[in-house]
Design a protein that fits this description.
Distance between the termini: 53 Å
Number of domains: 2
CATH architecture of the largest domain: 3-Layer(aba) Sandwich
CATH topology of the largest domain: Rossmann fold
Radius of gyration: 21 Å
Structural class: alpha/beta
Strand content: 15-25%
CATH class of the largest domain: Alpha Beta
Strand order of the largest sheet: 3-2-1-4-5-6
């Protein structure tokens, strides 16, 4: 298949959590660069549609409702849409059992070339140890197996939001104290974040707290202990995260999606890992990322975190 053919139809599949989608930016760019004249469609979930529309890497973005096995009408609708797309090649960057199963939905009349892990696909990722690789290296290998050798550095200039609406001081640090509610072991203790916020505020660095509705109680407790902090929980879009990350002196957070966006735009980041996840496979990537890990995050001291921060930058 000629990579420059103007009449090519390419499908990219990427669901994932926020961190996974941020880490897929380099593969997204690589696919577009390899198929500059093709019509490229992204199949993703509703959360990421408005954000990725502004990337100018995709000609269409389709929403995958990820139907259950018993939702036969929805499965049929997905099958029909995929077949009507007449795709020449599919890059499955999700490589889950669900996304791999979509190859079967195409039937036998028009089977696209397929990069991924689906059984009998045309361009399989051949590394049997792929599950031990970081997402970026794993996807870069997958694309090389499909003939894409140039994987660019992720460029998020398109994602920068205007943060003047928040009226922030010149020197601020981002704190991301939340994470998946069902994975409390991945969270550094609330008391530690509150102490860190107080320590930062005493050095004229304003702590800015980020999170969603699920972190509202945690952030409220930190605000009670450190009234000089600024609460932006529930007030930021993905573009706002990029803009904030590009302006902050540094950021500290748990192994959670927003920190991937903040790190990706070059913010100095310290990310905290417990035994619940593996930084070798899932750490944020960026120009300046420090990983601190302790099997039990209650044992990770505030002092250890402070030692990693670029405090000198805050005094520039």
């Amino acid at each position: 298949m000629s990579a420059n053919a103007a009449n090519q139809n390419i499908l990219v599949i990427k669901h994932g959590a926020l961190g996974d989608v941020i880490l897929a930016q380099s593969p997204f760019q690589a696919i577009r660069n390899h198929h500059p004249a093709a019509h490229i469609t992204l199949l993703t979930t509703p959360l990421f549609e408005p954000f990725l529309k502004t990337a100018n890497l995709f000609d269409d973005i389709w929403i995958d409702e990820k139907p259950k096995l018993w939702q036969l009408l929805k499965i049929s609708a997905l099958k029909n849409r995929l077949r009507e797309g007449k795709f020449d090649r599919v890059y499955d960057l999700q490589t889950s059992s669900r996304s791999s199963s979509y190859l079967k939905l195409f039937g036998s009349n028009h089977v696209p070339e397929w990069s991924g892990t689906a059984k009998a696909c045309s361009h399989p990722h051949k590394n049997e140890q792929r599950g031990k690789l970081h997402t970026i290296e794993r996807q870069a290998e997958q694309l090389r197996d499909a003939g894409i050798d140039r994987i660019p550095e992720a460029d998020f200039k398109w994602a920068m939001g205007d943060i003047t609406q928040f009226s922030l001081p010149a020197k601020f640090a981002l704190l991301v104290p939340g994470g998946a509610a069902h994975r409390p072991e991945k969270r550094w203790p609330l008391a530690h974040y509150a102490e860190l916020a107080i320590r930062l505020a005493s050095t004229a660095i304003t702590p800015v707290l980020l999170g969603g509705k699920a972190e509202a109680d945690v952030i409220a407790d930190i605000m009670e202990k450190c009234p000089r902090a600024i609460d932006l929980s529930g007030a930021t879009s993905l573009s706002d995260l990029a803009g904030l990350g590009s302006s902050a002196v540094f950021a500290v957070g748990n192994d959670t999606g927003p920190l991937h966006m903040i790190a990706a735009v070059g913010c100095p980041v310290t990310v905290l890992f417990s035994a619940a996840s593996d930084p070798v496979r899932a750490r944020p990537r960026g120009a300046d990322v420090t990983v601190l890990q302790d099997d039990d995050l209650t044992n990770l001291s505030v002092g250890a975190v402070l030692e990693t921060l670029k405090m000198a930058k805050s005094d520039d």
